[in-house]
Amino acid sequence: MNKTWNNRAWWLVLPVFLMVAFNALVPLMTVVNYSVQETFGNNEFFWAGSRWFEDILRSDRFHDALLRSGIFTLLVLALEVPLGLGIALTMPRKGPWVSVCLVLMSLPLLIPWNVVGSMWNIMALPDIGLLGKAINALGINYNYTRQPISAWFTLVLMDVWHWTSLVALLCYAGLVSIPDAYYQAAKIDGARPWAVFRYIQLPKLRHVLTIAILLRFMDSFMIYTEVIVLTGGGPGNATTFLSIDLVKYALGQFDLGHAAAMSIIYFLIILFASWLFYTLMMRHQEQ
Amino acid sequence: MAKITIDNLRHAYISEPTRDEHYALKRVHLDWADGGAYALLGPSGCGKTTLLNLISGLLHPSEGRILFDGKDVTMETPEARNIAQVFQFPVIYDTMTVYDNLAFPLRNRGVDEAEIKKRVSAIAEMLELTATLSHRASGLTADGKQKISLGRGLVRDDVNVIMFDEPLTVIDPHLKWQLRSKLKELQQRIKRTMIYVTHDQTEALTFAEQVVVMNNGEVVQTGTPIELFERPMHTFVGHFIGSPGMNLLPCEVKGGAAFVSGKQVPAANAKKAKSGRKLELGVRPEFVRFANKGLPADVVRVSDIGRYRVVETRVNGTPVKLVVGEDTEVPVGKAHLVFDATHTQIYSDGWLVGSRP
Amino acid sequence: MPLELKGVTKRLGADTHIYPADISFADGSFNVLLGATRSGKTTMMQLMAGIQQPTTGEIWHGGKNMTRVAVQKRNVSMVYQQFINYPMMSVFENIASPLRVTGLAETDVKKRVGTAAELLRLTPMLDRKPSELSGGQQQRTAIARAIVKDSSLIFLDEPLANLDYKLREELRDELPKIFSGRSAIVFYATTEPHEALLFGGNTLTLHEGHITQYGPTAEIYRKPNSLTTARVFSDPPINVTKVVKKGKSLAVFNGEKWPLAGTATKLADGEYHLALHPHYVLPTTENGATGVVKGKVLVTEISGSESVVHVDVGGHTWVSQSHGVRPHKVGEAATFFADIGHALFFDSEGKRVS
Fold it and tell me: Which long-range contacts (CB under 8 A, 24 or more apart) does C242-250 make?
C-alpha cells in the first residue's frame, strides 16, 4: 500500500521514540555491556563471556533471593486480590458515599514509597510504635528488627495496606461498567448473590483482574524502596529480595559484572512472566 | 400467566409532584387479559419505559395500583412478581453453555435435573437452539443470544408476564422478520401474557393483538392494528401510525357539514362536531384521490417509491399527501382532490369527534 | 466538476473490500450507495473522500488526479450515522466551524450559518448546546455543518439510521429539498431500498465489494441488470424462483402452472430465474394478478399502512406486500396471486433477459 503523503505523521512519534531510547534502551545496552565484560571502573574492559551469568545462576545466594521474592509476590497476590475484590463488591455504586469511598481508597496510593516505609518503620517499632506495642501487648513476642517472621509479617502487611486499594479501584471500575440489565435479569432469573457474583460479576471482571494481577506481580516482584527503608533486607538476609541483593552486588561490593548479569536475568524473568500473563489473557479472550 | 390490571397509575420522578407536567406517567388505566399479546408504542420520552418498569417492579408508582390476577403487587419486588424480561441488548451468562443458560432460572429455584432437562430440551426445540445447546453462549450471534434471553423466561412455568424492551434493536435488518415470525408463533402457541415495548410501529403492529399508543405520559389509544389505521382516536395516532402519516386540514363545521377552505367536504362524523374548538379534518393518504371536481390543490412533488407513488400537494397552503398506484396518471400543477367519506373524520382539539363522552 | 474512479480497488491484508471500480459521477448529482451492511458502502465513500487510500487505481475530480491529495485539501463534507458535533460549542458555532478555518468575515459567517440553519429549521436553537437537542436536531446540525461551506463533495453515511422512524420520515422528506440546486456531488449511503427510491437521483448498488449497477434510481429498481442488483434493491426481499417456460405457460413450484403475458411470451423456451417484487404478489386477483401462490403464513409484518406477509411455499419463502392492514395467524393457509406481467426473468448466470 502506498502511503507517501501521510508518512509525515511518523515525525510526531520521533520525540517519544528518542525518549524511550534514552530512558530504556541506552541503559539496558550499558548493562548488557557490563554483563559480558570485566572492569574495575577505570575504563579498561576485558571479555568475560558468559562467566557472570554462570556464577549467578549457580550461586545459592541468588537462588535464596529469588525464592524470597517469589514467596513475597505470591503472598501479596493471594491477599490483595481477594481483599481488593471484596472491598470493591461492598463499595456503594450510587449516591453521595461513592466519592467519599473513592477518596479514602486512593489515599494510600498517593503516599510516596519511602514515606510508606518510614511510616511503618516507626509504627512497627516494638517499644514506641503503635502497631509494635499493640502486638506485644497481646502477649506475642514481636520485633521486626530481630525476628525474620516479624519482619515478613510487617512487610506483607505494609504492602497489603499500600496496594489493596489499587486492586479494589480497578475492580470497582469493572463492576460499575456492568450494565444494569444484567443485574435485573439475574433478579428475574431468581439468582442468589453468590450466583450473581459467580456468573455475572466474576466473568465480567476477568480482564480487570488479569490487569490487576499483572500490575501487582510486577510491582511486588520488583519491590525495593519500602523494604530498604523498613528492614534494609534484614534481619540477616531474611528480607533480602532480588532487588536488594542486586544493589548489594552493584553498590555494596562494586561487583559490576555479577550485578549486570543478575539484572538481565531479573529483567528476563519479569518479561517472561508478563508475556505469560498476557498470552493467557488473550487466549481466554478468544475462546 | 395472569390478567394484568393497571389501576389509575401515576408516576413522577421528582419527590413532590404538584402539576400535571411533573408526571412522567399521567394516570393510566388498562386491563390486559391473560395470554394476550400487547404492545406499548410511542416516541422516546412518552412514558412507555416508565410503565414497563412499573409493571416489572423496578420502579414503584407515586399513585395507583398494579394487580396480577386481582392480587395487588404494587409494592412487590421483581422477583416476587414472577416476570420475565428480554432486554434491548442481549443478556446472557457468558461463561455458561446455552443449556446452562436456559437451565439457570430453574436451578436457582431448586428444580430437579431430570425436570430441567425435559423443559430445557422442549424450549430449545421451540426456539431452534437444540443444535447449539452444548456451545458457549457467548459465541452465538445476536439473534441467538436474544433467543436465549427469551428462553430463560419460557422455561419457567410460573411466569406471569413476559416483557420485551425493544428486543430487536441489535438484530441485523435482514433477520428481523424471522425473529418476528418466531415470536408471533410462540405467542400463539404458549399463550402467555406478553408485553412488547417499542418506538417502531412495525414491531408493535406485527407482534400485538392490542397496541397501546402513548404520547406525553398518556395513553392516546388502545386498539387493534386495523383500528389504529382506520380509526385513529387522536391526530397523534394518525400521524404516528402509517407512512406517510394522516393528512390534517383545518376545517369548519356549519349545520352538520364540514368545510375546508370554504368548500364542503364529506366527513363520517361531521354531524357530531361542534364549532368553537380547534377543528381538523383527518384523512390518510390512502383515502385521497385525484378527480375532475373537488377540493382545488397544487401538485408540488411526486416521489416514486417503486410500488406506489407519493404525491405531495398543497390545499390553500396546507400539505396534503396522496398515495397513488404505479400506473395512475398524476396531474401537473392544478388538480382536484376527493376524500373517501367513510375514512374522513373530524378531530376536535386533537381528539376524534364522537369518540369521547 | 465530475468525480471519476479509474480502476480503484481496496484490499486490506487478504480481504478485498472494493473490487475494481470504474465509474463517473456527474456534477450536481445526488447518488445513493445502496447495499447491505459490509457491502463496501463506507469504504467506497472514504476512498472518494480521501480518508482511505485506494490500493490501486486513481480518483480524479474536476480534471485533476486527487488520489494522493490529503482529505483536508479536498473540500469535502461528511455526515455520519452517529451524531457528531462539538459538545462544548453552541449550535451556531458548530455550524460555523468549517467556515472559521477559511478566515471568512464575521458578517458572511453569520449570513451563511443563518441560511443553513433556516434550511434545516434550526434557527430557534442556534444558542443551545448539542446536548440540549433531540437526536433529530443533532443530526440536522451535523447536516447544516456539511452544507455551510459549499463543499464540492458531500458524503452522508447512513445519517438517519440512528433516528426514531417518524423523525427519519421527516428528514427523508426534507433532504432532497436541502440538496437540490447545489453544484456539489452528494453521496448518500443506506441499507434501505425505500430511501433510495424516495430520494430519486442515481443509485449505485453494491454487493460484497462489487458495483453491480449504476444509473437513475427508478430505472435500476424496475430494470435491474442482474439478479444480484434485484436482490440488493428490494426490501422486503424480492421473490425468486426457478421456472421452466414452455410456450405460453410457466411451470413454477408445487406443480403450479402460470399463464404468461406481456413480453415474457417472446422468451425462448427453457429454464429461468423468475423474480417478482413483493408488491406484485397480492391477496386478490385485481390488477390482473393470476399466478397462484399457495402456502402457510410465517408472519405478517404490519408497517401501519402496509402488510407484508411471509409465506412458506413448499420450503421457499414468498413475500406479499399490499396496502392496508391484514393480519394473518401464523401457520394459517393463505393464497396470493402473482402479477406475472411484472415478473423479471434472469438466465442461469443471473443476467436479466426480460
Answer: C242/C271, C242/C272, C242/C273, C242/C274, C243/C271, C243/C272, C243/C273, C243/C274, C244/C270, C244/C271, C244/C272, C245/C269, C245/C270, C245/C271, C245/C272, C245/C345, C250/C274, C250/C291, C250/C340
pLDDT in tens, chain C (354 residues): 899 999 999 998 888 999 999 999 999 899 999 998 889 999 999 999 999 999 999 999 988 899 988 888 888 999 998 888 998 999 999 999 999 888 889 999 999 999 999 988 899 999 999 988 888 899 999 999 999 988 899 999 999 988 887 888 888 888 888 888 788 999 999 999 999 998 989 999 999 999 999 999 999 999 999 999 999 999 889 999 999 988 888 888 777 888 887 777 888 888 999 999 999 999 988 777 888 899 999 999 998 889 999 999 988 899 999 988 888 888 899 999 998 888 999 998 889 987
User: Are C305 and B229 a contacting pair, CB within 8 Å?
Assistant: yes
- For residues B313 and B337, the answer to whether their CB atoms sit within 8 Å is yes
C172: cell is: 427523508
Q: What is the largest CA-CA distance in chain B?
A: 76
CA distance C275 to A273: 62
Residue B56 in contact with residue B162, Cβ under 8 Å?
no
CATH class of C3-228: alpha beta
B94–A195 CB contact, under 8 Å: no
CA distance A208 to chain B (A): 16
C75: cell is 473540500
Q: Residue A207: its chain B contacts at CB < 8 A?
A: none
CA nearest neighbour of C351 among C228, C172, C245, C195? C228
Domain coordinates in residue numbering, chain C: 3-228, 239-346
The answer to whether C70 contacts A6, with C-beta atoms less than 8 Å apart, is: yes
**What's B246-352's CATH class?**
mainly beta
Cα within 13 Å of Cα(A127), Cβ side: 1
Q: Does C70 contact A5 at a Cβ distance shorter than 8 Å?
A: yes
User: Would you list the domain boundaries of chain B?
Assistant: 4-236, 246-352
What is the third-level CATH fold of C239-346?
Answer: OB fold (Dihydrolipoamide Acetyltransferase, E2P) (2.40.50)
Q: What domains does chain A contain, in order, with CATH numbers? A: 60-286 (1.10.3720.10)
Q: Which amino acid is at C301?
A: E
- CA B327 to CA B305: how far, in whole Å? 13
Arch. (CATH architecture) of B4-236:
3-Layer(aba) Sandwich (3.40)
